[in-house]
Amino acid sequence: MHALLVEDDDRMAQALGTALTQRGHTVRRVSRALDALLHVREAEFVLLDLGLPDLDGIELLRRLRTVCAAPLIVVTARCEERDIVTGLRAGADDYVVKPFRMAELMARIDTVRRRTDAHPVGSAHTGGGPVRTGDVEVDLAGRTVSVAGTEVRLTRREFDVLALLAAHPGEVRSREEILDRIWGDAFLAASRSLDVHVAGIRAKTGRSGLVRTVRGFGYQLGSPAAHGEPDGAR
Ligand code: CA
Q1: Cα–Cα distance between 162 and 181 in angstroms, integer?
Q2: Helices H, strands E: what count in the chain?
């Protein structure tokens, strides 16, 4: 997704920019409130520092909210309860105090995005028919998968993983999000289990490219070659 990063501190902006890019987001960083107002319409989510050189962050937050409904997280050194309440009341979806832990902030971004997503997983593919990629068909409603017209039996969890990816074919899902949604906990040994399930989907369908690995981040529905040749993505 495309992020607008409003941060006047170069080192902080660089660290955040790197973390966001690693997670598959594109980032526009601005350091002034006026530039934030200029670019906010293109943003799919916003990270907002409150201490900016040209306008108070809370005032900027109010103005951003009049023109933009995208998820917005305040990331600031202001840690008084009064500041946090003001930020949330002014329209922030979440409020993170510096110094913060990067993994926690990234998890909060995922959560806020999910909560404000107008197309929750399972409803994005609204055509009614199966999702097709290559010679694979995934029927989300009927919970069946077929390859070249022949049904392939997956376990319940294998199907859940595939369905999560197939519901939004163009989007990359982070490992944390998949684990959180299907296993219910991103921080257990489930992580290893996810690898096993992805391997199971690839093996049973004979289409290794059906689940594309986005290295260091997560997975996406791929376009499998008909003969199941390795796609080099692992
Ligand atoms: Ca600042």
Answers
A1: 12
A2: 8, 12
If one compares 181 and 90, the residue with the highest pLDDT of the two is 90
Q: What is the mean pLDDT of residues 174-190?
A: 75
Give residue 64 CA to ligand 1 midpoint distance, Å: 17
* One domain, residues 180 and 209: yes
Please give the residue range of the domain that contains residue 138.
131-221
Q: Which of 95, 117, 139 is the last residue of a domain?
A: 117
**Statement to judge: residues 194 and 112 lie in one domain:** no
Count, residues in the chain: 234
The span from the CA of 225 to the CA of 206, in Å, is 10
- What distance in Å separates the CA atoms of residue 180 and residue 110, rounded to the nearest whole number? 10
What's the predicted TM-score (pTM) here? 0.56
In a domain, 228, yes or no: no
pLDDT tens-digit series, residues 42-95: 899 999 999 999 999 999 998 898 888 889 999 999 999 999 999 998 889 999
Q: Which residue has the tokens 């981040």?
A: 217
Give the closest residue to 78 by CA, choosing from 55, 49, 112: 49
3-class state of residue 131 by DSSP: strand
More confident residue, 234 or 189: 189
What residue type is 140 in one-letter code? L
CATH number at residue 44: 3.40.50.2300
CA of 39 to the centre of ligand 1 (A): 18
State both tokens at 208: 């290794």
How far does residue 54's CA lie from ligand 1's centre (Å)?
A: 11
